[in-house]
Design brief:
alpha/beta; Rossmann fold; 2 domains; eight-stranded mixed sheet
Length: about 425
């Protein structure tokens, strides 16, 4: 089969890059063809400045064997990936004609986001008019808030795929058959004989510093730890800059004594790794006992589990994940103290530290979780994931699909978003 992956240009690619790369690798491993383009709201085809191999490597770009075949950066996207300037009618029609040559179009960002580049831009509406099966891939756990305008083109899609449980439940507002197909990983990299409990040391916490990631809750806990084992924190982002800035440090990043929590954590043994390249994440996780994800969001939690990729990467590396009860809310995949160690959302720094100290010394629970996770990790294998996409396109196991229904609130939000793009509101549809 022939697949075309595409997405609307966004400013921060994040985990979508890894998903696209490993899905492409999985599909190719099964013998299918995969191409990839990015849709950009321009009238002229963008020209990318040439870079040498050494420049790409120095800037943190990498290429996954058998993936899309393009160099990519976690925050900057792909280098030299073909782009379609869809505000140009010639390029847009050329793209639509090309789509007809594929069995399915996989839309990683199925509709444009509400950013300045897309304001009063309506030319994307007819991009889906092709003879292939359009599959929307939902990466977000708050679809009703972020992409309700997908309702305007929902009839042009064959189905939608949700990459985690939160996305699956949030997509219930779409009158579209949906299926939970988890994020793909290189599961063959699973540590067959993980380093023993005694050979590993401490914890790692690797994620982008966003407010809802709540890295500060871990940073506050570090001075209260009695353990002398490794305390590795990786990542950067807007909240990192606020937390570490001497001039613009937010008030909430000071403790009760007026000390910067970041400085206090460093004094008590925390090591900041900076941005950890994808190629290095596994090396770090193979050295530690625990991977800590303190994130949770009230918005996302109401739809279910919304864990980070590093949770799965920890399992592959033979480490034990720690995650919040809100981050894993109502998960049917990850069970507390069977597949991960549960952190109570909103716990005090002292309580958080006590849990970490206990977990670093609880060999019995650690071994139990490591062994339990050997089974669930198979669901994330890139070839297994890719086969589910193939089955979806072929119409296999259609009885598993569930079709949602929008509510009045989502419909109103849809029309509000359409106004941003300069698109007339849609009338109350049949499925309301």
């Amino acid at each position: 089969m022939k697949f075309l992956m595409t997405l609307f240009q966004i400013q921060d690619y994040g985990g979508i890059i890894n998903h696209a790369e490993y899905l492409a690798k999985g599909l190719k491993r099964l013998g299918h063809e995969v191409d990839f383009v990015v849709l950009t709201p321009r009238s002229k085809q963008p020209i990318t400045k040439n870079k040498t191999l050494s420049q790409l490597q120095e800037e943190g770009y990498k290429k996954i064997d058998e993936g899309t075949g393009y160099w990519h950066h976690q925050a900057r996207g792909w280098y030299k990936l073909p782009k379609v300037a869809y505000l140009n009618s010639f390029y847009k029609e050329q793209f639509k004609e090309r789509c007809g040559k594929y069995d399915a179009i996989l839309w990683h960002i199925p509709v444009p986001t509400l950013n300045k580049d897309h304001k009063q831009v309506s030319d994307w509406i007819d991009l889906y008019d092709n003879s292939s099966k359009n599959i929307a891939i939902i990466h977000d756990g708050n679809l009703p808030e972020l992409y309700p305008h997908l309702l305007n083109v929902v009839d042009k899609f064959h189905a939608c795929v949700c990459v985690h449980e939160s996305a699956y439940h949030s997509a219930k507002i779409l009158p579209l058959p949906r299926k939970l197909i988890l994020n793909p990983f290189d599961v063959e990299k699973v540590t067959p004989n993980p380093f023993s409990f005694e050979q590993r040391s401490g914890f790692a916490a690797i994620q982008v510093f966003k407010a809802w990631k709540r890295v500060d809750t871990l940073v506050r806990a570090i001075p209260h730890l009695s353990s002398k084992e490794s305390k590795l924190v990786g990542g950067e982002g807007i909240e990192y800059r606020y937390m570490t800035s001497k001039e613009k440090c937010k008030p909430k990043y000071f403790d009760d004594s007026g000390n910067r929590i970041w400085e206090m954590a460093l004094k008590h043994g925390m090591t900041h790794l900076g941005t950890v390249p994808n190629s290095e994440v596994m090396k770090v996780l193979k050295q530690v006992k625990l991977q800590i994800d303190p994130s949770f969001s009230g918005k996302y939690a109401k739809f279910g589990a919304h864990f980070n990729r590093t949770t799965v990467e920890a399992i592959i590396a033979g480490a034990v994940p720690m995650a919040t009860d809100w981050g894993m809310k109502n998960s049917k995949i990850f069970l507390p103290f069977t597949n991960y160690i549960e952190i109570k959302a909103g716990c005090s720094p002292q309580e958080f530290a006590e849990l970490i100290d206990h977990s670093l010394n609880d060999k019995t629970t650690w071994l139990h979780i490591v062994e339990s996770n050997r089974e669930i990790i198979k669901q994330f294998d890139k070839a297994y994931v890719a086969q589910q996409y193939v089955d979806l396109v072929l119409g296999i196991d259609q009885e598993e699909l569930v079709t949602g229904k929008p509510d009045k609130q989502t419909f109103e939000k849809c029309n509000k978003n359409l106004a941003f793009f300069g698109i007339s509101p849609i009338e109350a549809p049949r499925w309301l």
